[in-house]
Amino acid sequence: MASRAKALTATLLAVVFLSLTMAPTWSMAFLILFGMIAPAVVAAGKKMRRNPALAADAPALDVDALALDVDALAVEVDAAGKMRRKPESSSSSSGIEYDLYLSFRDTDAHEFVSHLYTELDRAGIRVFIDSEGLRKGEEIGFKLKEEIKRSRICIAVLSPNFASSKFCLDELLQMWEFRELNGHTIIPIFYEVSSSDVKHQAGDFGRSFDRYEKLGVDLNTIETWRKVLRQIGSMKASSIAAKPNGDEGQLAEEVARVVHVLKKGDQVITDKLVGIDDHVEKMMKILGFAYRKGQATEERGGDVRILGIWGMPGIGKTTLAKVVFNKMRKLFDASSFLEDISLEGVEFSRRKLIVDLQKQKPAPVESSGEGIEEIASLCRNAKVLIVLDNICESQPIKALTGNLTWLSPGSRIIVTTNKRNVLNALAFGALDRWTVFTYEVGDMRDDHAHKLFCKYAFRGAAAQDVSEYFGLSMDIAKAIGGLPSSIVDHASSLRDNMNIHTWKSTLGLLKKKTQKI
User: Which carries the bigger pLDDT value, residue 75 or residue 184?
Assistant: First the structure.
Protein backbone atom coordinates (compact mmCIF):
# COMPACT_ATOMS: atom_id res chain seq x y z
CA MET A 1 0.00 0.00 0.00
CA ALA A 2 2.77 2.46 1.00
CA SER A 3 4.74 1.59 -2.12
CA ARG A 4 1.73 2.39 -4.30
CA ALA A 5 1.34 5.80 -2.58
CA LYS A 6 5.02 6.56 -3.08
CA ALA A 7 4.79 5.54 -6.73
CA LEU A 8 1.75 7.75 -7.28
CA THR A 9 3.44 10.71 -5.59
CA ALA A 10 6.56 10.26 -7.69
CA THR A 11 4.43 10.06 -10.84
CA LEU A 12 2.61 13.28 -10.00
CA LEU A 13 5.86 15.12 -9.30
CA ALA A 14 7.30 13.88 -12.56
CA VAL A 15 4.21 15.05 -14.47
CA VAL A 16 4.37 18.53 -12.95
CA PHE A 17 8.12 18.85 -13.58
CA LEU A 18 7.75 17.62 -17.16
CA SER A 19 4.89 20.05 -17.87
CA LEU A 20 6.96 23.00 -16.66
CA THR A 21 9.74 22.18 -19.11
CA MET A 22 7.36 22.27 -22.09
CA ALA A 23 6.16 25.22 -24.13
CA PRO A 24 2.97 26.68 -22.57
CA THR A 25 0.60 25.28 -25.22
CA TRP A 26 2.02 21.72 -25.04
CA SER A 27 2.23 21.96 -21.26
CA MET A 28 -1.47 22.72 -20.90
CA ALA A 29 -2.44 20.00 -23.38
CA PHE A 30 -0.29 17.51 -21.49
CA LEU A 31 -1.87 18.44 -18.12
CA ILE A 32 -5.37 18.19 -19.55
CA LEU A 33 -4.65 14.75 -21.00
CA PHE A 34 -3.15 13.58 -17.72
CA GLY A 35 -6.16 15.00 -15.84
CA MET A 36 -8.51 12.97 -18.04
CA ILE A 37 -6.63 9.71 -17.69
CA ALA A 38 -5.57 9.82 -14.04
CA PRO A 39 -9.06 9.47 -12.43
CA ALA A 40 -9.84 6.41 -14.51
CA VAL A 41 -6.49 4.80 -13.71
CA VAL A 42 -6.96 5.40 -9.98
CA ALA A 43 -10.51 4.05 -10.10
CA ALA A 44 -9.41 0.95 -11.97
CA GLY A 45 -6.60 0.38 -9.48
CA LYS A 46 -9.08 0.47 -6.60
CA LYS A 47 -11.32 -2.09 -8.31
CA MET A 48 -8.38 -4.39 -8.95
CA ARG A 49 -7.27 -4.19 -5.33
CA ARG A 50 -10.77 -5.21 -4.23
CA ASN A 51 -10.98 -7.97 -6.84
CA PRO A 52 -7.65 -9.17 -8.29
CA ALA A 53 -9.52 -11.19 -10.88
CA LEU A 54 -10.49 -7.99 -12.60
CA ALA A 55 -6.85 -7.31 -13.42
CA ALA A 56 -6.84 -9.92 -16.07
CA ASP A 57 -10.07 -8.72 -17.70
CA ALA A 58 -10.30 -4.98 -17.05
CA PRO A 59 -13.33 -3.21 -18.58
CA ALA A 60 -13.07 -0.36 -21.06
CA LEU A 61 -12.82 3.17 -19.65
CA ASP A 62 -16.14 4.91 -19.04
CA VAL A 63 -15.45 8.18 -20.87
CA ASP A 64 -18.66 9.83 -19.63
CA ALA A 65 -17.47 9.32 -16.05
CA LEU A 66 -14.26 11.23 -16.65
CA ALA A 67 -14.20 14.77 -15.26
CA LEU A 68 -11.55 17.45 -15.34
CA ASP A 69 -11.41 20.36 -12.94
CA VAL A 70 -9.79 22.89 -15.25
CA ASP A 71 -9.65 25.56 -12.51
CA ALA A 72 -7.48 23.22 -10.43
CA LEU A 73 -4.88 23.27 -13.21
CA ALA A 74 -5.08 26.98 -13.96
CA VAL A 75 -1.86 28.94 -13.70
CA GLU A 76 -0.95 32.51 -14.37
CA VAL A 77 2.30 34.26 -15.18
CA ASP A 78 3.51 37.08 -12.97
CA ALA A 79 5.37 40.22 -14.07
CA ALA A 80 8.71 38.45 -13.73
CA GLY A 81 7.56 35.75 -16.13
CA LYS A 82 7.26 33.06 -13.46
CA MET A 83 4.37 30.62 -13.49
CA ARG A 84 2.34 30.40 -10.35
CA ARG A 85 -0.94 29.06 -9.09
CA LYS A 86 -3.94 31.15 -10.07
CA PRO A 87 -5.32 32.78 -6.88
CA GLU A 88 -8.59 31.46 -5.57
CA SER A 89 -11.29 34.07 -5.24
CA SER A 90 -13.91 34.26 -2.54
CA SER A 91 -15.89 36.43 -4.97
CA SER A 92 -16.05 33.86 -7.76
CA SER A 93 -19.74 33.28 -7.17
CA SER A 94 -20.45 36.94 -7.97
CA GLY A 95 -18.32 36.86 -11.14
CA ILE A 96 -15.42 38.87 -9.62
CA GLU A 97 -12.09 37.09 -9.96
CA TYR A 98 -9.46 39.84 -9.81
CA ASP A 99 -9.17 43.01 -7.77
CA LEU A 100 -7.56 44.83 -10.67
CA TYR A 101 -7.04 44.64 -14.44
CA LEU A 102 -3.87 46.39 -15.62
CA SER A 103 -3.61 47.81 -19.15
CA PHE A 104 -0.36 49.31 -20.46
CA ARG A 105 1.93 49.68 -23.48
CA ASP A 106 4.96 47.52 -22.83
CA THR A 107 7.32 49.48 -25.07
CA ASP A 108 7.56 52.52 -22.79
CA ALA A 109 5.93 51.61 -19.47
CA HIS A 110 7.47 48.23 -18.68
CA GLU A 111 9.75 49.37 -15.85
CA PHE A 112 7.03 51.34 -14.09
CA VAL A 113 4.50 48.51 -14.47
CA SER A 114 7.05 46.13 -12.96
CA HIS A 115 7.32 48.42 -9.89
CA LEU A 116 3.55 48.74 -9.78
CA TYR A 117 2.89 45.02 -10.02
CA THR A 118 5.35 44.35 -7.18
CA GLU A 119 3.66 46.88 -4.89
CA LEU A 120 0.16 45.65 -5.70
CA ASP A 121 1.15 42.05 -5.13
CA ARG A 122 2.81 43.02 -1.83
CA ALA A 123 -0.46 44.67 -0.77
CA GLY A 124 -2.36 41.43 -1.40
CA ILE A 125 -4.17 42.81 -4.46
CA ARG A 126 -5.02 40.22 -7.12
CA VAL A 127 -3.91 41.61 -10.46
CA PHE A 128 -4.67 40.41 -13.97
CA ILE A 129 -1.83 41.40 -16.25
CA ASP A 130 -1.64 40.08 -19.81
CA SER A 131 1.49 37.97 -19.51
CA GLU A 132 -0.23 34.84 -20.76
CA GLY A 133 -0.14 35.66 -24.45
CA LEU A 134 -3.86 36.33 -24.69
CA ARG A 135 -3.31 39.11 -27.19
CA LYS A 136 -3.98 37.64 -30.59
CA GLY A 137 -3.37 40.12 -33.37
CA GLU A 138 -4.75 43.63 -33.15
CA GLU A 139 -8.23 42.85 -31.79
CA ILE A 140 -9.20 42.31 -28.18
CA GLY A 141 -10.58 38.80 -27.75
CA PHE A 142 -13.41 37.33 -25.70
CA LYS A 143 -11.05 36.05 -22.99
CA LEU A 144 -9.64 39.50 -22.24
CA LYS A 145 -13.10 41.06 -22.30
CA GLU A 146 -14.15 38.56 -19.66
CA GLU A 147 -11.11 39.35 -17.51
CA ILE A 148 -11.94 43.06 -17.64
CA LYS A 149 -15.55 42.31 -16.76
CA ARG A 150 -14.53 40.13 -13.80
CA SER A 151 -12.14 42.70 -12.29
CA ARG A 152 -13.25 45.18 -9.62
CA ILE A 153 -10.96 47.99 -10.77
CA CYS A 154 -9.22 48.78 -14.06
CA ILE A 155 -5.98 50.76 -14.35
CA ALA A 156 -4.83 52.17 -17.67
CA VAL A 157 -1.20 53.38 -17.76
CA LEU A 158 -1.43 56.06 -20.44
CA SER A 159 2.14 56.44 -21.71
CA PRO A 160 3.39 58.26 -24.86
CA ASN A 161 3.10 55.12 -27.03
CA PHE A 162 -0.23 53.92 -25.59
CA ALA A 163 -2.31 55.30 -28.48
CA SER A 164 0.03 53.77 -31.07
CA SER A 165 -1.52 50.38 -30.23
CA LYS A 166 -4.99 49.62 -31.57
CA PHE A 167 -5.15 46.85 -29.02
CA CYS A 168 -4.58 49.23 -26.10
CA LEU A 169 -7.23 51.61 -27.42
CA ASP A 170 -9.75 48.78 -27.76
CA GLU A 171 -8.84 47.59 -24.28
CA LEU A 172 -9.53 51.09 -22.92
CA LEU A 173 -12.78 51.23 -24.86
CA GLN A 174 -13.89 47.94 -23.30
CA MET A 175 -13.09 49.27 -19.82
CA TRP A 176 -15.15 52.38 -20.50
CA GLU A 177 -18.12 50.36 -21.78
CA PHE A 178 -18.17 48.28 -18.59
CA ARG A 179 -17.89 51.50 -16.57
CA GLU A 180 -20.95 52.89 -18.34
CA LEU A 181 -22.84 49.61 -18.00
CA ASN A 182 -22.25 48.72 -14.36
CA GLY A 183 -20.09 51.36 -12.71
CA HIS A 184 -16.65 49.74 -13.11
CA THR A 185 -13.92 51.84 -11.48
CA ILE A 186 -11.23 53.13 -13.85
CA ILE A 187 -8.01 54.75 -12.61
CA PRO A 188 -6.07 56.47 -15.41
CA ILE A 189 -2.35 56.94 -14.73
CA PHE A 190 -0.87 59.68 -16.91
CA TYR A 191 2.69 58.39 -17.28
CA GLU A 192 5.01 60.89 -19.01
CA VAL A 193 1.96 62.41 -20.76
CA SER A 194 -0.45 65.12 -19.64
CA SER A 195 -4.16 64.63 -19.15
CA SER A 196 -4.62 67.46 -21.66
CA ASP A 197 -2.71 65.56 -24.38
CA VAL A 198 -4.91 62.53 -23.76
CA LYS A 199 -8.12 64.57 -23.69
CA HIS A 200 -7.35 66.51 -26.89
CA GLN A 201 -5.22 63.82 -28.61
CA ALA A 202 -2.21 66.12 -28.80
CA GLY A 203 1.52 65.30 -28.81
CA ASP A 204 2.27 61.60 -29.19
CA PHE A 205 -1.43 60.78 -29.00
CA GLY A 206 -2.18 63.17 -31.86
CA ARG A 207 0.58 61.70 -34.04
CA SER A 208 -0.82 58.19 -33.48
CA PHE A 209 -4.25 59.28 -34.68
CA ASP A 210 -2.79 61.05 -37.71
CA ARG A 211 -1.16 57.74 -38.64
CA TYR A 212 -4.43 55.83 -38.24
CA GLU A 213 -6.19 58.23 -40.60
CA LYS A 214 -3.43 57.86 -43.20
CA LEU A 215 -3.63 54.07 -42.91
CA GLY A 216 -7.36 54.22 -43.64
CA VAL A 217 -8.61 52.94 -40.29
CA ASP A 218 -12.41 53.14 -40.11
CA LEU A 219 -13.39 56.71 -39.21
CA ASN A 220 -16.17 55.58 -36.86
CA THR A 221 -13.64 53.49 -34.94
CA ILE A 222 -11.25 56.43 -34.73
CA GLU A 223 -14.00 58.73 -33.46
CA THR A 224 -15.03 56.14 -30.82
CA TRP A 225 -11.44 55.97 -29.55
CA ARG A 226 -11.24 59.77 -29.50
CA LYS A 227 -14.47 60.03 -27.52
CA VAL A 228 -13.22 57.61 -24.85
CA LEU A 229 -9.87 59.42 -24.57
CA ARG A 230 -11.71 62.72 -24.13
CA GLN A 231 -13.63 61.18 -21.24
CA ILE A 232 -10.53 59.57 -19.71
CA GLY A 233 -8.56 62.81 -20.00
CA SER A 234 -11.30 64.59 -18.05
CA MET A 235 -11.20 62.18 -15.10
CA LYS A 236 -9.07 64.40 -12.89
CA ALA A 237 -10.71 63.38 -9.61
CA SER A 238 -9.84 59.68 -9.92
CA SER A 239 -6.66 59.92 -12.00
CA ILE A 240 -2.99 59.79 -10.95
CA ALA A 241 -0.30 61.84 -12.67
CA ALA A 242 3.31 60.65 -12.85
CA LYS A 243 5.78 63.52 -12.76
CA PRO A 244 8.67 63.54 -15.28
CA ASN A 245 11.80 62.01 -13.74
CA GLY A 246 9.77 61.19 -10.63
CA ASP A 247 10.32 58.30 -8.25
CA GLU A 248 8.57 55.39 -9.97
CA GLY A 249 8.77 53.21 -6.87
CA GLN A 250 7.07 55.92 -4.80
CA LEU A 251 4.39 56.36 -7.46
CA ALA A 252 3.77 52.61 -7.49
CA GLU A 253 3.32 52.67 -3.70
CA GLU A 254 0.77 55.48 -4.01
CA VAL A 255 -1.22 53.58 -6.66
CA ALA A 256 -1.20 50.46 -4.49
CA ARG A 257 -2.51 52.53 -1.56
CA VAL A 258 -5.33 53.92 -3.71
CA VAL A 259 -6.34 50.47 -4.96
CA HIS A 260 -6.22 49.04 -1.44
CA VAL A 261 -8.59 51.77 -0.24
CA LEU A 262 -10.99 51.20 -3.13
CA LYS A 263 -10.92 47.46 -2.52
CA LYS A 264 -12.19 48.04 1.03
CA GLY A 265 -15.04 50.17 -0.27
CA ASP A 266 -13.69 53.46 1.12
CA GLN A 267 -13.22 56.71 -0.76
CA VAL A 268 -9.62 57.63 -1.61
CA ILE A 269 -8.33 60.55 0.43
CA THR A 270 -4.90 62.17 0.53
CA ASP A 271 -2.70 61.27 3.47
CA LYS A 272 -1.73 64.96 3.83
CA LEU A 273 -4.91 66.26 5.49
CA VAL A 274 -4.64 69.34 7.72
CA GLY A 275 -7.24 71.02 9.92
CA ILE A 276 -10.13 68.78 8.96
CA ASP A 277 -10.87 67.21 12.37
CA ASP A 278 -12.86 70.19 13.64
CA HIS A 279 -15.08 70.11 10.56
CA VAL A 280 -15.66 66.36 10.91
CA GLU A 281 -16.67 66.64 14.56
CA LYS A 282 -19.17 69.41 13.77
CA MET A 283 -20.66 67.43 10.89
CA MET A 284 -21.00 64.28 12.98
CA LYS A 285 -22.96 66.29 15.53
CA ILE A 286 -25.21 67.74 12.81
CA LEU A 287 -25.78 64.28 11.30
CA GLY A 288 -26.65 62.85 14.70
CA PHE A 289 -23.80 60.39 15.27
CA ALA A 290 -21.69 59.69 18.33
CA TYR A 291 -18.04 60.24 17.40
CA ARG A 292 -15.22 58.70 19.41
CA LYS A 293 -11.54 58.17 18.64
CA GLY A 294 -11.90 59.32 15.06
CA GLN A 295 -14.82 57.04 14.16
CA ALA A 296 -18.62 57.30 14.12
CA THR A 297 -19.84 54.75 16.68
CA GLU A 298 -23.64 54.93 16.79
CA GLU A 299 -26.61 56.83 15.46
CA ARG A 300 -28.58 59.03 17.85
CA GLY A 301 -32.20 59.33 16.81
CA GLY A 302 -34.03 57.60 13.99
CA ASP A 303 -34.93 60.64 11.91
CA VAL A 304 -33.88 61.29 8.32
CA ARG A 305 -31.18 63.96 8.05
CA ILE A 306 -30.06 65.76 4.91
CA LEU A 307 -26.92 67.91 4.89
CA GLY A 308 -25.80 70.37 2.25
CA ILE A 309 -22.08 71.28 2.28
CA TRP A 310 -21.29 74.45 0.35
CA GLY A 311 -18.38 76.76 -0.30
CA MET A 312 -16.17 78.12 -3.06
CA PRO A 313 -14.45 75.76 -5.54
CA GLY A 314 -11.28 74.15 -4.15
CA ILE A 315 -12.19 74.80 -0.51
CA GLY A 316 -12.28 71.08 0.37
CA LYS A 317 -15.99 70.14 0.28
CA THR A 318 -15.48 66.83 -1.52
CA THR A 319 -12.57 65.85 0.72
CA LEU A 320 -14.62 66.61 3.82
CA ALA A 321 -17.57 64.59 2.48
CA LYS A 322 -15.25 61.64 1.73
CA VAL A 323 -13.79 61.67 5.24
CA VAL A 324 -17.26 61.71 6.80
CA PHE A 325 -18.48 59.00 4.40
CA ASN A 326 -15.58 56.66 5.27
CA LYS A 327 -16.15 57.11 8.99
CA MET A 328 -19.92 56.49 8.81
CA ARG A 329 -20.64 54.05 5.97
CA LYS A 330 -20.31 50.81 7.95
CA LEU A 331 -23.21 51.88 10.18
CA PHE A 332 -25.64 51.78 7.23
CA ASP A 333 -27.29 48.94 5.33
CA ALA A 334 -26.04 50.38 2.03
CA SER A 335 -24.01 53.41 0.95
CA SER A 336 -23.04 55.21 -2.25
CA PHE A 337 -20.68 58.10 -3.00
CA LEU A 338 -21.52 59.67 -6.38
CA GLU A 339 -18.44 61.75 -7.17
CA ASP A 340 -18.45 64.82 -9.43
CA ILE A 341 -22.00 64.47 -10.74
CA SER A 342 -21.69 67.66 -12.80
CA LEU A 343 -18.95 65.96 -14.83
CA GLU A 344 -20.17 62.35 -14.83
CA GLY A 345 -23.77 63.20 -15.68
CA VAL A 346 -27.06 62.08 -14.16
CA GLU A 347 -27.49 58.86 -16.16
CA PHE A 348 -24.14 57.38 -15.14
CA SER A 349 -24.61 58.53 -11.54
CA ARG A 350 -28.04 56.91 -11.39
CA ARG A 351 -26.72 53.59 -12.66
CA LYS A 352 -23.87 53.68 -10.14
CA LEU A 353 -26.29 54.49 -7.32
CA ILE A 354 -28.43 51.47 -8.18
CA VAL A 355 -25.33 49.25 -8.40
CA ASP A 356 -24.15 50.41 -4.97
CA LEU A 357 -27.55 49.95 -3.36
CA GLN A 358 -28.08 46.52 -4.89
CA LYS A 359 -24.48 45.46 -4.25
CA GLN A 360 -24.67 43.59 -7.57
CA LYS A 361 -24.98 44.36 -11.26
CA PRO A 362 -28.37 45.86 -12.09
CA ALA A 363 -30.55 45.51 -15.14
CA PRO A 364 -30.19 48.47 -17.52
CA VAL A 365 -32.28 51.49 -16.51
CA GLU A 366 -34.53 52.57 -19.39
CA SER A 367 -35.85 55.90 -18.11
CA SER A 368 -35.36 58.40 -15.30
CA GLY A 369 -38.76 57.51 -13.84
CA GLU A 370 -37.93 53.82 -13.77
CA GLY A 371 -34.57 54.57 -12.17
CA ILE A 372 -36.10 56.58 -9.34
CA GLU A 373 -38.67 53.84 -8.70
CA GLU A 374 -35.91 51.23 -8.47
CA ILE A 375 -33.86 53.43 -6.14
CA ALA A 376 -36.94 54.01 -3.99
CA SER A 377 -37.73 50.28 -3.80
CA LEU A 378 -34.15 49.51 -2.72
CA CYS A 379 -34.23 52.12 0.06
CA ARG A 380 -37.68 51.75 1.57
CA ASN A 381 -36.62 49.07 4.02
CA ALA A 382 -32.95 49.99 4.35
CA LYS A 383 -31.00 52.68 6.18
CA VAL A 384 -28.83 54.27 3.49
CA LEU A 385 -26.02 56.82 3.25
CA ILE A 386 -25.85 58.68 -0.09
CA VAL A 387 -23.43 61.45 -1.07
CA LEU A 388 -24.22 63.60 -4.13
CA ASP A 389 -20.95 65.38 -4.92
CA ASN A 390 -20.47 68.59 -6.92
CA ILE A 391 -24.05 69.48 -7.72
CA CYS A 392 -24.20 72.71 -9.76
CA GLU A 393 -27.98 72.91 -10.21
CA SER A 394 -31.08 71.50 -8.54
CA GLN A 395 -32.17 69.24 -11.41
CA PRO A 396 -29.70 66.39 -10.68
CA ILE A 397 -30.92 66.20 -7.08
CA LYS A 398 -34.51 65.71 -8.22
CA ALA A 399 -33.48 63.37 -11.06
CA LEU A 400 -31.50 61.10 -8.71
CA THR A 401 -33.73 61.15 -5.64
CA GLY A 402 -37.23 62.14 -6.75
CA ASN A 403 -39.10 63.76 -3.86
CA LEU A 404 -37.08 61.84 -1.24
CA THR A 405 -40.22 60.46 0.46
CA TRP A 406 -38.83 56.93 0.15
CA LEU A 407 -36.01 57.47 2.66
CA SER A 408 -36.16 55.04 5.57
CA PRO A 409 -35.66 56.18 9.19
CA GLY A 410 -31.98 56.69 10.03
CA SER A 411 -30.96 57.44 6.41
CA ARG A 412 -28.60 60.30 5.56
CA ILE A 413 -28.05 62.27 2.35
CA ILE A 414 -25.08 64.63 1.92
CA VAL A 415 -24.82 67.07 -0.99
CA THR A 416 -21.76 69.18 -1.90
CA THR A 417 -22.11 72.29 -4.05
CA ASN A 418 -20.49 75.62 -4.88
CA LYS A 419 -23.90 77.33 -4.93
CA ARG A 420 -25.90 77.86 -1.76
CA ASN A 421 -29.25 78.23 -3.58
CA VAL A 422 -28.95 74.73 -5.12
CA LEU A 423 -29.60 73.29 -1.66
CA ASN A 424 -33.18 74.61 -1.78
CA ALA A 425 -34.00 71.48 -3.79
CA LEU A 426 -33.37 69.42 -0.65
CA ALA A 427 -36.57 70.81 0.84
CA PHE A 428 -38.57 69.61 -2.18
CA GLY A 429 -41.40 67.44 -0.82
CA ALA A 430 -39.98 67.64 2.71
CA LEU A 431 -41.79 65.83 5.51
CA ASP A 432 -41.98 66.51 9.22
CA ARG A 433 -39.65 63.59 9.94
CA TRP A 434 -36.87 65.17 7.85
CA THR A 435 -34.28 67.60 9.11
CA VAL A 436 -32.37 69.62 6.48
CA PHE A 437 -29.08 71.29 7.45
CA THR A 438 -26.46 73.36 5.64
CA TYR A 439 -22.76 73.67 6.42
CA GLU A 440 -20.41 76.25 4.92
CA VAL A 441 -16.72 75.40 4.54
CA GLY A 442 -14.59 78.53 4.93
CA ASP A 443 -10.92 79.41 4.38
CA MET A 444 -8.19 77.59 6.29
CA ARG A 445 -6.59 79.25 9.28
CA ASP A 446 -3.12 80.71 8.65
CA ASP A 447 -1.34 78.06 10.74
CA HIS A 448 -3.20 75.25 8.97
CA ALA A 449 -2.49 76.81 5.57
CA HIS A 450 1.23 76.94 6.35
CA LYS A 451 1.27 73.36 7.62
CA LEU A 452 -0.48 72.13 4.45
CA PHE A 453 1.99 74.07 2.29
CA CYS A 454 4.93 72.45 4.07
CA LYS A 455 3.52 68.93 3.64
CA TYR A 456 3.58 69.36 -0.12
CA ALA A 457 6.56 71.67 -0.56
CA PHE A 458 9.09 69.83 1.59
CA ARG A 459 8.26 66.20 0.74
CA GLY A 460 7.13 65.49 4.28
CA ALA A 461 10.16 67.08 5.99
CA ALA A 462 9.69 69.81 8.59
CA ALA A 463 10.15 73.28 7.20
CA GLN A 464 12.84 74.06 9.80
CA ASP A 465 15.02 71.39 8.18
CA VAL A 466 15.18 73.59 5.07
CA SER A 467 15.99 76.79 6.96
CA GLU A 468 16.61 79.06 3.97
CA TYR A 469 13.09 78.39 2.74
CA PHE A 470 11.31 78.44 6.12
CA GLY A 471 10.58 82.16 6.31
CA LEU A 472 9.55 82.21 2.66
CA SER A 473 7.15 79.29 3.17
CA MET A 474 5.23 81.19 5.84
CA ASP A 475 4.98 84.33 3.70
CA ILE A 476 3.99 82.39 0.56
CA ALA A 477 1.28 80.41 2.38
CA LYS A 478 -0.18 83.63 3.80
CA ALA A 479 -0.08 85.32 0.39
CA ILE A 480 -1.85 82.38 -1.27
CA GLY A 481 -4.71 82.60 1.22
CA GLY A 482 -6.76 79.86 2.83
CA LEU A 483 -7.82 77.96 -0.31
CA PRO A 484 -6.48 74.37 0.02
CA SER A 485 -6.41 73.55 -3.70
CA SER A 486 -4.39 76.68 -4.47
CA ILE A 487 -1.99 75.95 -1.60
CA VAL A 488 -1.40 72.41 -2.87
CA ASP A 489 -0.86 73.56 -6.47
CA HIS A 490 1.69 76.24 -5.53
CA ALA A 491 3.50 74.04 -3.02
CA SER A 492 3.77 71.12 -5.46
CA SER A 493 5.14 73.42 -8.16
CA LEU A 494 7.72 74.97 -5.83
CA ARG A 495 8.75 71.55 -4.57
CA ASP A 496 9.89 70.75 -8.11
CA ASN A 497 11.74 74.08 -8.27
CA MET A 498 13.79 74.26 -5.07
CA ASN A 499 15.50 77.43 -6.14
CA ILE A 500 15.56 80.39 -3.76
CA HIS A 501 15.18 82.92 -6.60
CA THR A 502 12.09 81.07 -7.92
CA TRP A 503 10.53 81.07 -4.47
CA LYS A 504 11.19 84.80 -3.98
CA SER A 505 9.78 85.70 -7.39
CA THR A 506 6.69 83.58 -6.66
CA LEU A 507 6.13 85.44 -3.40
CA GLY A 508 6.47 88.77 -5.22
CA LEU A 509 3.88 87.78 -7.82
CA LEU A 510 1.44 86.56 -5.15
CA LYS A 511 1.73 89.82 -3.21
CA LYS A 512 1.07 91.88 -6.35
CA LYS A 513 -1.97 89.75 -7.11
CA THR A 514 -3.26 90.23 -3.55
CA GLN A 515 -2.80 94.02 -3.76
CA LYS A 516 -4.84 94.18 -6.98
CA ILE A 517 -7.69 92.32 -5.29
Answer: 184
